[in-house]
Amino acid sequence: MATRLNPYLQRKDGDAREVIEFYASVFGGEPNVMSFADVGGMGMPEDQQHLVMHSDLMVSDGVAIMVADVPPGMTHDQGNLHISLSGDDEATLRGWFEALADGGSIDVPLEQAPWGDHFGQVKDRYGYNWLVNIAGS
């Protein structure tokens, strides 16, 4: 397997399963989800064992996303996170941009940029910022 850099998103709202399923609806693929209960509870209180300890979505060789719940009492700081998608497959990237915008907001429309590519920025329904760059000819 080649080396890959992929986002690992942590959720404080207990909705990691919903988030990874949304991304599967956007990018395709089948999410793999493990709750704390699936791995013996790991000392978590009974009412928190349903939370997602780890999930991943392998979309392609170059795209993978991981999402987990942050149990109550653990620190969480989403910070100023932006996830970038780029390439020359215009149909795929435009489709992802539009699907990510569903229930979210378009901060920068996907249009011709001064550097010759098409670029846009969207905030998805879970508050994550996505930068999409389609290479120009």
UniProtKB/TrEMBL annotation:
Q: Name one Pfam family in it.
A: Glyoxalase
Residue intervals of the Glyoxalase/fosfomycin resistance/dioxygenase domain? 13-130
- Residues making up the signal peptide according to the UniProt record: none
PANTHER family in UniProt: PROTEIN YJDN (PTHR33990:SF1), PROTEIN YJDN-RELATED (PTHR33990)
What's the protein called, per UniProt?
A: VOC family protein
Q: Which organism is it from?
A: Nocardioides marinquilinus
